[in-house]
């Protein structure tokens, strides 16, 4: 199923779009996606930027970029554009699906802008969307480079919630922290850091999940 149904009935997929619940669930969906990569993922950074930009970065293996044999498109594209793809992907890897809910595609569908960078197999890949539609499809953008002497790996997803679907697109730091701390009960061996880069004073909290 594509993204149109999500855009028609966003509350069915992401929660209340008026009281901030759905907004927090947008970030939580991406954290859940990253946690499903543990191991090797053991660190997730959620950063709030000016302009209502939210970035979620992990140090996992990176979203898969190989072609899905059924759909004949890269798996990363499938995960970002088909709302049932996350469950199918987890089943294929024999991973439990209880961490995730709606998946990446729902966040993409309800975002004004949605961009993914992937570091996998010593290469960097990127794709970008506007209102759920491709701006450019997945493409290799060069070498992944190194981080602390090792090949860089992982995924970074940045998005701007769309005011078409949310009463407010500005995150409340304390409320989002409470939402993300719900992941502490899963005990996956992952450290989550929530940072606020908006305004003059940075805020940051770190906790184990």
Can you describe this structure in just a few lines?
The protein is an alpha+beta fold.
List the helices and strands and how they pair.
Layout (H helix, E strand, L loop, with lengths): L3 H5 L1 H5 L6 H15 L7 E7 L3 E6 L16 H7 L3 H8 L11 H6 L1 E10 L2 E8 L2 E11 L2 E2 L2 E2 L2 E8 L11 H8 L10 E6 L6 E6 L1
Helix pairs in contact: 3-7
Description:
The chain is α+β, with helices and mostly antiparallel strands and 209 residues long. It has a single domain, classed as Heat Shock Protein 90 (2-Layer Sandwich). It is built from 7 helices and 10 strands. The protein has helices at 4-8, 10-14, 21-35, 75-81, 85-92, 104-109, 173-180; strands at residues 43-49, 53-58, 111-120, 123-130, 133-143, 146-147, 150-151, 154-161, 191-196, 203-208. The strands form 2 sheets. It has an 8-stranded mixed sheet with strand order 5-4-3-8-2-1-9-10. The protein has a two-stranded antiparallel ribbon with strand order 6-7. Helix 3 crosses helix 7 (173-180).
